[in-house]
Amino acid sequence: MSENIIGVPQRRIDGGKKVSGQARYAADHPMGKMLYAYGVYSIIANGRVVAVKDQQAKAMPGVVDIFHHGNFPALHRTPNTKLSFAKMLSASKADEHRLPFEDDRVYYPGQFVALVVAESFEQART
């Protein structure tokens, strides 16, 4: 049964549109009044965020707000789930149990420390 599928080229319904650039993806459908966010990440491995000087960034065209530990409402912590030893060995930032903007501590480079919200992705990233 599987010999008719595995290893045999299959004709894709959307193939022609994809290779010609005519295929439409979710990002190709504009949403009215949508906001975009861009994360700001730590460049140090261990420390504290002692101040967030965001006045100049907030004055940039299109920037709606900048969130960080000092102005973000506390999030509700859910009970920790038990981790297996194998899970702990393979843990990464995606498995982090800390809540966003939980405190002013920086534990690793690349830690999420702020979020810029703007009217366009380019404005949020700038």
TrEMBL record:
Residues 20-126 form the Aldehyde oxidase/xanthine dehydrogenase a/b hammerhead domain. Keywords: Molybdenum, Oxidoreductase. Gene3D superfamilies: Aldehyde oxidase/xanthine dehydrogenase, a/b hammerhead. Pfam families: Ald_Xan_dh_C. One of its GO terms (molecular function) is iron ion binding. InterPro entries: Ald_Oxase/Xan_DH_a/b (IPR000674), Ald_Oxase/Xan_DH_a/b_sf (IPR036856), Ald_Oxase/xanthine_DH-like (IPR016208). The keyword Oxidoreductase applies. It comes from the Bacteria. The keyword Repeat does not apply. Belongs to the xanthine dehydrogenase family. This is Xanthine dehydrogenase, molybdenum binding subunit. It comes from Pseudomonas amygdali pv. dendropanacis. The lineage of its organism: Bacteria, Pseudomonadati, Pseudomonadota, Gammaproteobacteria, Pseudomonadales.
